[in-house]
Every structure is written in structure tokens, then in C-alpha cells.
Amino acid sequence: MTADSPARDSALERIHADERSPMESLPYWARATNPIVRRHLGLYWRTLPPEFEPIFYICGFWLIALLIGIVFPFVTDLATTVIVVSVLVIPVGIIFYLRALFSIAANAAAVMADEIRNNTMHLLMSTPMSLEQIFLGKVASAIWRKMDDLMLIVQGAAIFGPPLIIMHYAGLFPLRESGPATYLLIIAMTITALLRLVLEPLMVGMVGVGIGAFVPFRAIAVTSSLAWVAFYFILINMLQQLNLQNLSAALDLAREASDAAIYAANMRLALALAATIAIELALPVLLPYALIRLVSGLLARQMRAN
Q1: Average model confidence (pLDDT) for the chain?
Q2: Domain with 265 in it
Q3: Residues contacting 104, CB < 8 A, separation 6+
Q4: Burial 265-303 (b: 16+ CB within 10 A, else e)
Q5: Mean pLDDT (whole number) for 82-99
Q6: Within a domain: residue 3?
Q7: Which of 58, 106, 237, 249 has the most CB atoms at less than 10 Å from its CB?
Q8: What would the mean pLDDT of 35-50 be, rounded to a whole number?
């Protein structure tokens, strides 16, 4: 073996990685070429796989701009010049996002209800894939139908979302006075918002699969899944609005408190900040992930028991 063999092997691996289809970068259960997914897609199997590289570049730009803004605040001021466009684009994106989630939940519930009603689930269980992968494949088939819309929504959120997040938190914590903590909070909120766009479609699809498994009547399963999506978003937004009001009141109290009441005011502010981190950063990520695992596990256990 020659001395340059490791270098040559490494170069060949990079070439093969570059030649791989983007579909191969996805888990097998998520690929449109997966037979369990493709049987539900129809013409949608021709949908191009998602390209994540532009999104990483956009997120990198905002991350660098915010980190530089800690030292040079005028950089953040320049970056937020697109705020007017963000105010116009993001509400429209939210409408299309909700529409996509409703469609994913309805399609996932419908395909699973059909499997149960037609008694074909035992045939899928004979495949090498695990039950959890089968359920995720059902979800993936529903997501592929809205893949083009979801990728546009994610790209729009990556470009125009950070200015709105900056405006939201800068109104509560002035950037030039609060220091690095506010910038880190904005970065964390931006990452959370993008993670939600990945986890929430999987979550509503998995819940739809669970509803379709236990309610084998297609119309009822679809209606129940749509009601679940509406309930989830009302719950999340209600909690966030209540927390925002509590945080604003705590900030006002801390600014106006007398020396005798400053300790109590600071304690209330600390609790409000902890609730903000829990509700706006942790909950939107942990709740979808927990529901995906919970529904998948319970449904798999029920199927094995039957």
C-alpha cells in the first residue's frame, strides 16, 4: 500500500458523498423511494428532495450578524432594515404553514384509517421495517405532499424571521442596554423557530396516524386530526401571549419598584424570565418531540398486542 492511500481513499469518499442523491441523505423511512411512503404519494413521488444547504447559509449569516452585533450594535441595526418586508411576509407564511399542517394531519389520518379499515396493516408489519418506522413512513408520505410549500416556508422564516424576533425582544430588552444576554436569547429563539418547522409537521402527522389507527372511519379521523392541530396552536399561542403579558408587567414593576420592593420585583422578573425560556424556547421543541415518541410508542405497543 502506498503512502498516499489514506489521502486517496479520503478523496474518493468525498467524491462519492458529492455524487450521492439528496434523497440518500434522508433516513430511509423519510425517503420518497421507500415503498411504504411511495404507495401513498401517487404523482407526488416526483417531488424534488429538500435542499438544506441554502438554509444553513442564511442561518449562518444571521448568526454571524447577531454575534458581531454584540460588539458593534450598528450591524444589527443594518440587518433589521428588512423589518417592513418581514412584517408583510411572515403573517402570510404563517397562514400557509397552518394550511400545510392541516393537510399533513388530514392525509396522515386518512392513510392510516384506510390501512386499519382494509385490514392491510399486518402486511406492512411483515416488512423488515419496525412499527415505528412504518408509522413515520405514513407521516413522511403526508409531508412529501406539502414538501415544496414547507421548504418555501422554512426559507422565508430563515430570511425574514430573525428581524421580527429582534424587534420583539428589543422592545422588551433594549439591545444597547441589555448586553449579550438579549442577543443570545434572540439567537436561541431563531433556532427554536426553525426547529419547530421541522418537528411540528412530524408531530401533527404522527398524531394524525394515531387518530387514524384508533378511529378507522376516514371522515371522523380527518376531522379529529384537524381539530387537534387547531387546539395545539391555540394552546401554544395562548401560553405565549399570557407569558408576554406577565413578562411585560414584571419588567414594568422592576423599573418602577422602590428600594424596599426591589427584591420582590426582581424575584418576579426572574420567574417571568424562567417562564419565557420554558414556554418560548423549551416547550415548542420538547412538546412535539415528546408527542412523536409517545404516540409512536403507544401505537406500536397496541399493534403488537393485537
Answers
A1: 84
A2: 38-305
A3: 139, 142, 143, 145, 146, 201, 204, 205, 208
A4: beebbeebbebbeebbbebbbebbeebbeebbeebbeeb
A5: 89
A6: no
A7: 106
A8: 78
Alpha carbon distance, N-terminus to C-terminus of the chain = 57
Position 87: which residue type?
V
Q: Answer whether residue 25 is part of any domain.
A: no
The size of the chain, in residues, is 306
Is the separation of the CB atoms in 35 and 29 below 8 Å? no
pLDDT exceeds cutoff 90 at 34: no
Domain presence at residue 228: yes
Q: Determine the Cα–Cα distance for residues 39 and 29; give it in Å rounded to an integer.
A: 13
**238 vs 263: which has the higher pLDDT:** 238
Structural domain total, the chain: 1
Amino acid in position 270:
A
